[in-house]
Design a protein that fits this description.
Blueprint: E1 7-18, E2 25-31, E3 38-40, E4 43-45, H1 52-64, E5 66-81, E6 94-108, E7 118-125, H2 126-129, H3 136-144
Parallel strand pairs: 1-6
Antiparallel strand pairs: 1-2, 1-4, 2-3, 2-7, 5-6
């Protein structure tokens, strides 16, 4: 299918890890826009005139309250949704292209987003992640970061 026949969304996510207290924890945000609330890596859509790097730094700040510095690109992931699985009324397929970065906290404080696509942020131990209802980008990010 030609690229003009489907919608594409460029998004950028951060794997932010805390290894300071003997238990490895990852920063997650509770996404509220799907059919059910699910945990995700902080991140989201990159704006038109924004780089993927600037987009993920902005998104982490909006969703968690933290300022982060990027440690490097972990990888790029993509998936396709058929029109009937989309959250909007359309007959066009959707391709998500997701860049994933390793990042660390350099400032700010943990804060929940208000009136956004997430409504809670928290540190979650790696052992606890498997018990959470989560979107696929969490597992992709942890695998690319060598945490799985």
């Amino acid at each position: 299918m030609h690229y003009t026949a489907y919608d594409t969304r460029l998004a950028s996510y951060a794997v932010v890890v805390d290894e300071g207290q003997g238990d490895v924890r990852v920063l997650l945000a509770l996404w509220n826009e799907g059919t059910r609330r699910q945990w995700t890596l902080p991140g989201g859509g990159v704006e038109l005139h924004e780089t993927v790097e600037a987009g993920v730094v902005r998104e982490v700040r909006e969703e968690t309250g933290y300022d982060v510095a990027l440690d490097g690109l972990l990888g790029v992931d993509s998936y396709v949704l058929d029109p009937q699985r989309r959250h909007v009324d359309t007959d066009r397929p959707f391709k998500a292209v997701r860049t994933l970065f390793r990042a660390h906290v350099v400032g700010g404080e943990l804060t929940h987003e208000v009136d956004g696509s997430t409504d809670e942020a928290r540190w979650v131990s790696l052992a606890e992640v498997d018990q959470l209802d989560r979107v696929s980008v969490v597992d992709v990010g942890l695998r690319l970061a060598g945490l799985r």
